[in-house]
């Protein structure tokens, strides 16, 4: 029973009718519309495109061309000196942004799979939006990993493929694990995105003409909606939902091992695995909230599918995750500090008192203080502006966390003569802006090509939900479909 | 060959010498120039994939270190020390290592040329025309040679040539000599030991060294040799080194004690130490009697207790040595200070020796004092010089601007430069007839100090001349048309070394010139087997020495300490790798800086990299501040070596030249009294970040003020 | 196709206590003169990077001379000058983290190799090196046109390239590099010894830094020969290893403190 009416105020008898209307207004699951109408609404949201959309898309494309590929191409031809990397800061923004995007990509699967496994009903309208975030976020992460490499044109050497020179990859390297984990995650999350898309693609196929019909016909793989097909789909989704969760956890854990397995003060920490996973969820769920809010207010008919209840639920999730993040942060800090190693001490001191001390402080404020102060209040978390801002700040905070962990921490090592020379801004900044634009552009293109709302899942949920009356009290009931 | 030195022995020795199985190769008696052959017809000593090694002499300074250059198919690849040369025994400094960057410098002058003075480019000429120009200049008389401290053979040839034309003797000069105040050192040596010879300080066997501003690990006299001596001293008995100087140099950093004495009072400190040590030893040395220790402590800023403790050390030491460095001598009281410091060596014998006579032409070869340079400038101003020949020196850069060389140069009708690089003086000349660089040249160099042996270090071309350059000696000989009895440069060098052929004590000997010449090239010179140092006579200490506190020049608050950059020295600025090598003390690369005590900087509100104006009575310059922890709060220091306005892409427009701040006062030996100069420091709004290797964060702390 | 040999986990990254080649550096003798740095750069075709880049941690010299400050004026002192180069660890932290085996341990020389051609530039090895001795080619510094002159046809000529040592690869942008103990000299000596049908003996090989060092503070030789100078020095009671507590088994020993008691 995911949705409870008990939270609603007990009302006098004459208000019961209003109460039921209120329940329907609040919960998408209790506000069913005819299937044909809903399908039409989704199709309409996909096909209604204003000039503003194209203007923004063109702008994004321009930013991608110049900021991402232009700047990156310049860097490839010139060498990495145009970026903010040096000795001893061999890694910097590129890996910050890699981890950032992998973090963003996490929430997609988390929201979709974990909530599916736990049958959290509020997930239904935005699982697809979240899953798209996974795939598109991973694309950005990949771009930043490649950009980070000194010789990107030899990336394929990371693949363990048989070759005449008998060169092999080093499976002892955390980077190799990372490479494989991210590839696994990209493949599995793409499949996990595609599977529940099939019935919706079939729906779109049946309601479109011209090139779109061909497009959907190919992608829908001949879906007809037979009982056998539904059964297979449900089984497959169940397997995937369970299987992808450990993949998701492992990916960010392995990303954290890139740092935790290294022999550096501040990095060599056993708690980095779960700390990174929670950090990823912190930024990812916040990003889901931001995306959901954006969709709600920019796409046609979305006000029906996405409601304040979803803001509310995401807000609660963000609060819980923020608490978990604070716990891990404190745990990591406490143990490192108590250890008393002189280099770690220097590093912690540098985090707080060094030139980037304000970033460290900002990280704590935006990741802990603001969510805790804001999200406990139901009205505030149901306010899209507030939720969006908190989500944005949480992402800024998580960017700051990675910034502290990578370039700032790399300023300190065991050879004080070779400590850092400071952190500047380099070509990473246009590349990052370009990658944000690329992410938005991919999302915009996807919103024109595939139904962003999983219609069949919403309909399935609505069929399962009903409002019954015990006496005059309306009570929500849910049937288990499986 | 001598009886007991066989070819087999030679090869054995040669094999031991360098890292790989080195064969020191001469060009053979018959050939004078390396000829670049087509690959199809390769000289027998050039095998594909095999390197050939040539012994020659380093020309980055005048210390006469021997080099062995590895060449590979006509290209010079790597410079190593010549393991036989007694000066450096196979070792090199950073400047020697980078000498190939001079040879292959992209800014070399590739052809003889002429231009209007001050223009950046030259119109190419051919060598016949160039020789014609030189011949006319020589025939016209009233010419003067201004030469560098290396190479010696050209100095000797110019001397003979000047004599043949009845012109004034050539002058030689180098900024390093200014900073070392060599004339003063010579005068002080004459006063104390009765002879003006160069001194050899035996650090190897010393158990206590008092160094008064002598940066013998950086640039002083013969740094490679003295670094070896220092290491020997540390290895054997671990001698105790005390460095007296206002700014911690590399030498002071290696010292056991650094005494930051007020500039100009080093001589007083030496006298006080002498007096105290004599009292402890119960010796009567009238030289030290006239000094008041308490007054010295007051003037120098060294506590009396410290003086007494050091004097006790000195008295107790078996073989103490006192070194008179450049800065204490380059004062108005420099000669007296030099005498006082040298007089400290009277407590023992065996610390200081007179160097062996040079193997060739052991006559005057001391660099000119600045007073002699001033005399030359006067003659130039008076129009008494029709032609000035400049070789191996860059007076427009190296001389203090206040001396007025630039203005005097304009009054000389013809200026001919033999520079290999477009330096300031070459651009101010009418003609530039580029000499080969040192590694393409024949020649020899005498060692002023650094080795006990009688020595001459030989130079030979290690590759065929890279550009259309010509040996200046050849140009002069061709232009003088038979005035001198030498066919060419090689004939001249051979004539000079002929006297050594039968010498008894030689490292090698030969019966005839061709054999001798071959070995001379193979070994990179000639030297005696045994040291030829002589113990100076009892020092003349019967008269009381007087050292006055120097009058202070300038109105500023801060003593200006100018020191030659240990990496760039006077002419290294055009070698990019030398620019990139961090200064040993500050780790700054590619620029100039002003060292200032952090306490002083705090008082003036200056952070690292803030640009300040340094104002002396003679000039002004702007330079970034380096908060240097080891300098007196009343002293600021600027390294010399940067601040070129020409000299190629790596040197030009980089840093500042502190010579612009220096004045024209001389001490009684004729050296520039630059050390007592006081300057004003004015803050500006500008900031110019110095490139340093060290992390400011790690070295100076996280809590350091942010910028 | 035969399957490539994959090293046993962990065991491969460790080796015996002794090692084969080693350096001993006497910090009491080192004067910080930078001759070793210059010699190394000349021998190994190390590019210079210019003022701006060198000030931002991109100086490419394979070794550096460290000094820190102690105390306040007038009792201020530097710590002894300390040349730091690749320590050729027996258990090198840089090796296991490279995803493509670009930094591997040589069985024959027992040195830590950097395979330039294989390097893809992840820079993990450098992050994991506690001595911070690895340098990265942030750009093609050596072929920057500002070092060139145009010839008659306008083609760029780099006179400085004549100096390149043919025994050492010239690295392009995007690869890591570091001190090799002048492995090209080791190989030459080994070839020579082989042709003379003998083992390489102590003294056959001198790396550029040791050859230049005017104070003879850098001693190179066979660590597995107990009679060699470097073996004896590394057994000396003055010998310490950098960051020994990390268990990297460095092959460079530093002799700290004076050899004898001070006079005073």
Protein model, in words:
The complex is a heterotrimer of chains A (482), B (707) and C (264). Chain A has a single domain, classed as Up-down Bundle (Formate dehydrogenase/DMSO reductase fold), CATH 1.20.1630.10. Chain A is built from 18 helices and two strands. Chain A has helices at 16-26, 35-47, 51-78, 93-117, 127-148, 174-194, 197-206, 210-219, 227-260, 272-298, 302-305, 308-339, 342-353, 357-374, 378-381, 384-408, 428-449, 455-464, and strands spanning 465-470, 473-478. Chain A has a two-stranded antiparallel ribbon with strand order 1-2. The longest helix of chain A has 34 residues, at 227-260. In chain B, strands 5-4-16-15-14-6-7 form a seven-stranded mixed β-sheet. A six-stranded mixed β-barrel of chain B has the order 20-25-22-24-23-26. Chain B has 707 residues and is an alpha/beta fold. Chain B contains 24 helices and 27 strands. Helices cover 17% and strands 16% of the residues of chain C. In chain C, a hairpin with a 5-residue loop joins strand 9 (149-150) and strand 10. Chain C starts with 20 loop residues before the first strand and ends in a 9-residue tail after the last strand. The model of chain C is unreliable at 260-264 (pLDDT under 50). Chains in contact: A-B, A-C, B-C. The interface between B and C is large, with 93 and 72 residues.
Give the helices and strands, then pairings.
The complex is a heterotrimer of chains A (482), B (707) and C (264).
Chain A: H1 16-26, H2 35-47, H3 51-78, H4 93-117, H5 127-148, H6 174-194, H7 197-206, H8 210-219, H9 227-260, H10 272-298, H11 302-305, H12 308-339, H13 342-353, H14 357-374, H15 378-381, H16 384-408, H17 428-449, H18 455-464, E1 465-470, E2 473-478
Antiparallel strand pairs in A: 1-2
Chain B: H1 7-17, E1 52-57, E2 66-72, E3 75-81, H2 94-97, H3 100-103, E4 113-114, E5 123-124, H4 127-140, E6 143-147, H5 152-164, E7 171-172, H6 175-180, H7 182-193, E8 199-201, E9 208-212, H8 223-236, E10 240-244, H9 250-254, E11 257-259, H10 266-281, H11 293-300, H12 304-316, E12 320-324, H13 326-329, H14 334-344, E13 352-354, H15 370-381, E14 387-391, H16 395-398, H17 405-410, E15 414-417, H18 424-427, E16 431-432, E17 443-445, E18 453-459, H19 472-479, H20 489-497, H21 513-523, E19 525-531, E20 558-564, H22 576-580, E21 588-589, E22 594-596, H23 598-604, E23 610-616, E24 619-627, E25 635-640, E26 678-687, E27 691-692, H24 696-700
Helix pairs in contact in B: 4-19, 7-14, 10-11, 10-12, 10-14
Chain C: E1 21-26, H1 35-43, H2 51-58, E2 64-66, E3 69-70, E4 77-78, E5 82-84, E6 103-105, E7 112-114, H3 124-127, E8 135-136, E9 149-150, E10 156-157, E11 176-177, H4 183-195, H5 208-212, E12 218-222, H6 229-235, E13 239-240, E14 252-255
Parallel strand pairs in C: 1-14
Antiparallel strand pairs in C: 1-12, 2-5, 3-4, 6-7, 8-11, 9-10, 13-14
């Amino acid at each position: 029973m995911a949705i409870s009416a008990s939270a609603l105020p007990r009302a006098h008898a004459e208000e019961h009718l209003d109460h039921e209307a209120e329940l329907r207004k609040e919960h998408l699951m209790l506000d069913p519309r005819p299937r044909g109408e809903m399908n039409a609404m989704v199709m309409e949201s996909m096909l209604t495109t204003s000039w503003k959309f194209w203007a923004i898309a063109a702008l994004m494309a321009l930013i991608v061309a110049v900021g991402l590929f232009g700047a990156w191409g310049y860097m490839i031809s010139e060498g990495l000196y145009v970026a903010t990397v040096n000795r001893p800061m061999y890694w910097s923004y590129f890996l910050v942004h890699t981890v950032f995007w992998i973090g963003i990509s996490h929430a997609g699967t988390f929201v979709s799979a974990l909530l599916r496994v736990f049958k959290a009903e509020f997930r239904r309208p935005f699982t697809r939006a979240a899953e798209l975030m996974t795939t598109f976020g991973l694309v950005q992460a990949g771009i930043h990993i490649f950009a980070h490499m000194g010789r990107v044109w030899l990336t394929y050497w990371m693949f363990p493929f048989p070759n005449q020179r008998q060169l092999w990859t080093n499976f002892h390297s955390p980077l190799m694990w990372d490479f494989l984990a991210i590839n696994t995650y990209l493949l599995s999350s793409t499949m996990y995105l595609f599977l529940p898309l099939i019935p919706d693609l079939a729906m779109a196929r049946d309601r479109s003409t011209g090139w779109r019909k061909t497009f959907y016909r190919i992608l829908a793989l001949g879906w007809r909606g037979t009982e056998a097909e539904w059964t297979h789909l449900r089984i497959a989704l169940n397997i995937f939902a369970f299987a992808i969760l450990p993949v998701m956890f492992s990916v960010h854990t392995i990303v954290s091992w890139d740092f935790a397995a290294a022999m550096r003060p501040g990095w060599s920490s056993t708690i980095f695995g779960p700390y990174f996973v929670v950090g990823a969820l912190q930024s990812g769920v916040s990003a889901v909230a931001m995306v959901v809010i954006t969709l709600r207010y920019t796409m046609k008919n979305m006000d029906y599918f996405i409601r304040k209840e979803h803001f509310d639920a995401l807000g609660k999730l963000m609060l819980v995750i923020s608490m978990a993040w604070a716990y891990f942060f404190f745990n990591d800090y406490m143990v490192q500090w108590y250890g008393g190693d002189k280099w770690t001490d220097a590093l912690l001191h540098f985090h707080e008192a060094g030139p980037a001390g304000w970033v460290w402080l900002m990280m704590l404020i935006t990741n802990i203080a603001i969510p805790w102060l804001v999200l406990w209040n139901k009205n505030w978390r149901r306010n899209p502006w507030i939720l969006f801002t908190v989500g944005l700040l949480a992402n800024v905070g998580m960017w700051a966390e990675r910034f502290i962990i990578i370039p700032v921490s790399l300023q300190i090592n065991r050879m004080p003569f070779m400590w850092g020379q400071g952190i500047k801004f380099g070509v990473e900044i246009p590349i990052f802006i370009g990658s944000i634009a690329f992410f938005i552009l991919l999302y915009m293109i996807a919103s024109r090509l595939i139904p962003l709302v999983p219609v069949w899942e919403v309909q399935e949920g609505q069929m399962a939900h009903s409002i019954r009356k015990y006496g005059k009290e309306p009570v929500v009931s849910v049937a288990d479909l499986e | 060959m001598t009886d007991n030195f066989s070819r087999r022995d030679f090869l054995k020795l040669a094999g031991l010498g360098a890292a790989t199985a080195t064969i020191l190769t001469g060009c053979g008696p018959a050939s004078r120039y390396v000829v670049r052959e087509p690959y199809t017809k390769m000289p027998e000593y050039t095998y594909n994939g095999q390197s050939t090694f040539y012994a020659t002499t380093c020309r980055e300074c005048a210390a006469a270190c021997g080099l062995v250059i590895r060449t590979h198919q006509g290209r010079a690849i790597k410079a190593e020390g010549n393991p036989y040369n007694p000066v450096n025994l196979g070792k090199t400094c950073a400047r020697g290592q980078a000498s190939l960057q001079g040879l292959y410098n992209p800014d070399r002058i590739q052809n003889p040329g002429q231009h209007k003075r001050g223009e950046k480019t030259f119109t190419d000429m051919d060598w016949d025309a160039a020789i014609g120009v030189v011949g006319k200049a020589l025939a016209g008389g009233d010419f003067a040679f201004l030469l560098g401290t290396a190479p010696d053979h050209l100095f000797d040839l110019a001397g003979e040539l000047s004599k043949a034309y009845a012109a004034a003797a050539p002058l030689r000069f180098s900024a390093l000599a200014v900073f070392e105040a060599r004339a003063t050192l010579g005068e002080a040596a004459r006063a104390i030991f009765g002879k003006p010879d160069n001194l050899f300080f035996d650090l190897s066997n010393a158990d206590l060294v008092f160094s008064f501003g002598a940066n013998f690990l950086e640039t002083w006299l013969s740094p490679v040799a003295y670094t070896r001596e220092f290491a020997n001293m540390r290895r054997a008995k671990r001698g105790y080194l005390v460095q007296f100087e206002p700014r911690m140099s590399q030498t002071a950093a290696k010292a056991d004690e650094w005494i930051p004495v007020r500039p100009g009072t080093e001589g007083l400190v030496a006298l006080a130490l002498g007096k105290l040590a004599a009292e402890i030893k119960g010796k009567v040395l009238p030289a030290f009697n006239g000094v008041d220790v308490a007054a010295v402590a007051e003037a120098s800023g060294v506590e009396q207790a410290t003086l007494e403790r050091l004097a006790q050390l000195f008295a107790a030491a078996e073989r103490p040595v006192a070194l008179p460095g450049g800065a204490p001598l380059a004062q108005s009281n420099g000669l007296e200070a030099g005498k006082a410091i040298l007089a400290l060596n009277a407590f023992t014998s065996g610390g200081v020796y007179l160097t062996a006579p040079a193997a060739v032409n052991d006559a005057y070869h001391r660099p000119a004092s600045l007073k002699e340079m001033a005399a030359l400038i006067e003659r130039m101003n008076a129009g008494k010089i029709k032609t000035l020949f400049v070789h191996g020196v860059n007076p427009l850069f190296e001389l203090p601007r206040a001396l007025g060389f630039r203005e005097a140069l304009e009054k000389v009708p013809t200026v001919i430069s033999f520079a290999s690089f477009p330096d300031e003086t070459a651009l101010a000349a009418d003609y530039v007839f580029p000499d080969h660089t040192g590694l393409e040249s024949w020649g020899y160099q005498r060692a002023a100090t650094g080795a006990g042996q009688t020595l001459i270090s030989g130079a030979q071309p290690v590759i065929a001349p890279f550009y259309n350059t010509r040996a200046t000696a050849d140009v002069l000989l061709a232009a003088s048309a038979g005035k001198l009895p030498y066919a060419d440069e090689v004939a001249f060098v051979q004539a000079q070394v002929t006297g050594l052929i039968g010498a008894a004590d030689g490292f090698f000997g030969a019966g005839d010139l061709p054999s001798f010449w071959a070995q001379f090239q193979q070994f990179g010179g000639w030297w005696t087997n045994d040291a030829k140092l002589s113990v100076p006579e009892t020092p003349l200490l019967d008269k009381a020495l007087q050292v006055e506190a120097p009058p202070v020049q300038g109105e500023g608050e801060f003593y200006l300490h100018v020191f030659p950059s240990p990496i760039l020295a006077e002419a290294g600025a055009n070698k990019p790798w030398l620019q990139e090598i961090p200064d040993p003390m500050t780790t700054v690369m590619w620029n100039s800086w002003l060292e200032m005590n952090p306490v002083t900087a705090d008082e003036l509100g200056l952070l690292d990299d803030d640009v300040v104006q340094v104002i002396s009575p003679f000039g002004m310059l702007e330079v970034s501040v380096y908060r240097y922890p080891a300098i007196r709060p009343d002293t600021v220091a600027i390294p010399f070596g940067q601040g070129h306005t020409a000299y190629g892409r790596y040197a030009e427009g980089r840093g500042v030249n502190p010579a612009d701040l220096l004045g024209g006062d001389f001490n009684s030996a004729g050296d520039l009294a630059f050390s007592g100069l006081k300057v004003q420091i004015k803050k500006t709004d500008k900031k110019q970040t110095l490139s340093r290797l060290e992390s400011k964060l790690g070295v100076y702390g996280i809590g350091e003020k942010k910028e | 196709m035969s399957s490539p040999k994959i090293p046993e986990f962990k065991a491969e990254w460790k080796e015996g206590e002794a090692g084969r080649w080693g350096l001993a550096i006497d910090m009491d003798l080192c004067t910080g003169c930078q001759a070793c740095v210059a010699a190394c750069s000349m021998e190994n075709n190390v590019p210079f990077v210019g003022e701006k880049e060198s000030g931002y941690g991109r100086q490419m010299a394979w070794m550096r001379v460290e000094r820190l400050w102690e105390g306040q004026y007038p009792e201020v002192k530097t710590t002894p000058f300390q040349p730091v180069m690749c320590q050729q660890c027996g258990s090198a932290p840089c090796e296991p983290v490279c995803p493509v085996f670009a930094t591997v341990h040589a069985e024959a020389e027992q040195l830590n190799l950097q395979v330039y051609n294989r390097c893809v530039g992840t820079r993990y090895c450098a992050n994991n090196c506690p001595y911070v001795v690895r340098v990265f080619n942030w750009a093609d510094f050596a072929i920057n046109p500002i070092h060139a002159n145009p010839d008659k046809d306008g083609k760029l000529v780099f006179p400085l390239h004549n100096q390149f040592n043919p025994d050492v690869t010239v690295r392009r942008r995007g690869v890591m590099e570091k001190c090799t103990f002048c492995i090209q000299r080791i190989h030459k000596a080994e070839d020579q010894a082989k042709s003379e049908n003998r083992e390489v003996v102590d003294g056959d090989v001198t790396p550029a830094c040791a050859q230049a060092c005017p104070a003879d503070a850098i001693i190179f030789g066979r660590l597995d020969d107990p009679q060699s100078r470097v073996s004896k020095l590394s057994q000396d009671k003055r010998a310490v290893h950098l960051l020994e507590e990390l268990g990297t088994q460095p092959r460079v020993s530093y002799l700290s403190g004076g050899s004898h008691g001070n006079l005073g």
